[in-house]
Amino acid sequence: MLSRVANTMYWMNRYIERAENYARFMDVHFNLSLESPPDAEEQWKPLVIITGDWPLYQKLYKKVNKSRVIFFLGFEPKNPNSIYSCITNARENARSIRPEITKEVWEQINSIYFFVKEGMERKLWKNNDPRIFFKKIKEDCQLLYGIFDATISRSDGWHFGKIGQLIERADKTSRVMDVKYHILLTTPQDVGSSIDLMQWAALLKSVSAYDMYRKKYGKLTALNISEFLILDKKFPRSMLCCLIHAEQSLQEITGSMGGFSNEAEKQLGKLKSELEFVDINDIFADGLHEYLDEFQQRLNGVSISFYNSFFAVQSQIQGQQ
């Protein structure tokens, strides 16, 4: 497979996963904001920080309120990570590799694109309740996942796409946990309070983990929720589960079933192995925020190693000619 095609498949899926995550974040946080004063900054600011785009937000806007945050994360063309930008980029990636994907995948990506474009033209971020819009985006992205899995052969292209999706998912799970622990809970007195439990429940719902968590643990506790979202091997949105399946797809691409044959396998394997053998009590003892921050940095390192191992090959060859 051409490195250009692999790179495009990888990023197409990352963009779709990012858009779906933003849609679920805003849906859940809108529900949570109903319990807070209207336009409360402490409710909407963390939603921007989740994405890592707080510096850009500060450059574009002077104040933090519900309408501005929804526009910034949902529709802002100057935000490269907004839902509109992600879906637009995913569609362009899909168009450039049209022969590599199926008619059904292309039609579904187009459907999502025109739905988001219509929402932008109708200025839906000004609606009192935009949850139906974000719920539809989330459902349409999930439908695309199903079409992608059901209609595309398990070739290298499918595995590159799956790796992109899983790396993006692991990153977003770590970010939403970090914001809850480090920002939303502002005073030690709130630990264990009804506000604290409401926030933890919202965190679980933002990654569609509430039902599976309650089935396994029952009672809501910070320790158990963190263990579930970081270390659970069976829940598909946990950080460890994402890395396990990303490594499996990478091994299908390289044919390596032990050790590593390139830097991407080495970095991904090391990070996955460390999560497999870490204890949640040790994570809390050293600091959950510090652990999640380091994880995000190392996951970025994994992404860079993927580019260097697979996607930079084409440009290197061209440079030698």
TrEMBL record:
Give residue ranges for domain DUF403.
Answer: 1-311
Protein known as: Alpha-E domain-containing protein
Which superkingdom, per the lineage?
Bacteria
Which PANTHER family would you find in this protein's record? BLR5612 PROTEIN, SLL1039 PROTEIN
User: Which InterPro entries does the record associate with it?
Assistant: ATP-dep_Glu-Cys_Ligase-2, DUF403
